[in-house]
Amino acid sequence: MTLSSEATFIIRAFGLGILGIGISLGICKIGKKNSPLRSNPRHVLTKQNQQQTNSRFGWLPPVPVGSTFRNRLLAAFGALFGISLTGLICAEFIGQGLWAPLIVAPIGASAVLLFAVPSSPLAQPWAIIGGNTLSAAIGMAVAYFVDDAVLGIGLAVSFAIIVMSLTRCLHPPGGAAALTAVLGGKVVSSWGVLFPLLPVGVNSCLLVIIGVIFHKIIGHSYPHRSATSIEQAAHAHHTRDLPPHIRSSFIRSDITTVLERQDETFDIDPEDLETLVEEVALQARCRKDGQVTCQEIMSRDVIFVGREMSADIAISLLLHHKIRTLPVLDANETLLGTVGLRDLVYSNGKVGDYLSPAIVAAPDDLAFNLIPHFTTGDIHAVVIADRKMKIKGIISQTDILSNMFNMSLLK
Predict the structure, then answer these.
(1) Is pTM, for the whole model, over 0.70?
(2) What kind and span of H or E run contains 326?
(3) Where is the chain membrane-spanning (predicted)?
């Protein structure tokens, strides 16, 4: 590559970058200013907007939840930016011509997923890179061993689905990559065994890198990280419970049970689905004017101690989990009382020697009726137990305040 061609490449790449970034930022600014869904931070279609859409375009399939015209414009310009820059880089460093394709066709389908639905599990980096590359390799293998093209195209796609599923990189354009490897003829054969890596793998990697940069610029989370995983990573108490402001009356296994009953595949990350349902439950609680029960917001992964445990171990648990109250149970796991740092700070015996009476509520009691207990300054947690004093959960001041704050925001 001569000096002039290098300069031309840099100028073209820089121009494409400035054009894509400028247009995308302009759409972001206009969309935030004029979007009718501006007041809804997650861009979920309201009932009125959905009815208007259905009345005007009743013959079309429903609009995907969370879809806005602004996001579709951003996706279009993202694809313009991503595909053009990928093609430009490959043309300069790989070459172009009859036997050196500028870009393989499945990358166009990958770009639709990457820029239009970046939160989809099918659009994540490993799905794009692994799905396209592995499927192309499957197609090459089928083309080598199967002479019948009709049988070969079917086998290539079916094997590609199996391999992508086993390697957790299911990606619809991978089926096209497998077909391209079987039907590509001399163009594919000219690349030989390198075809899955060059150009398919290189194209995929470049597109993902450009996608990461593009979504970073416009403020999208890519690679997608669900809200639930973010919150759990930051959870201060080192337990399996969700943070209090997204906690509700169901657990993850409830969602799994319902999905198994539906016997369908949904294009959504399980943690995203859990977060969505959590927020729907919070909205429903707000609509009920604060009639929230203890079991809806309590922590279920309760840290507790036995009465025979040493005070030093109990203090270590309190400090490690950053909590102020530990329920104390007997050998039958029946609640005896509670201990806190103030009870144990000067102790050197067993936990059972320093018990305080536990403040107990039933799972069906109204959570906000517990507020008076927290106003004395001595109580930091209420134990939720059944009639036999078996622990079901625990509610802290943070749980109550967080739910009150979120419900006030929704109102």
Answers:
(1) no
(2) strand 326-329
(3) 6-28, 73-94, 126-145, 151-170, 200-218
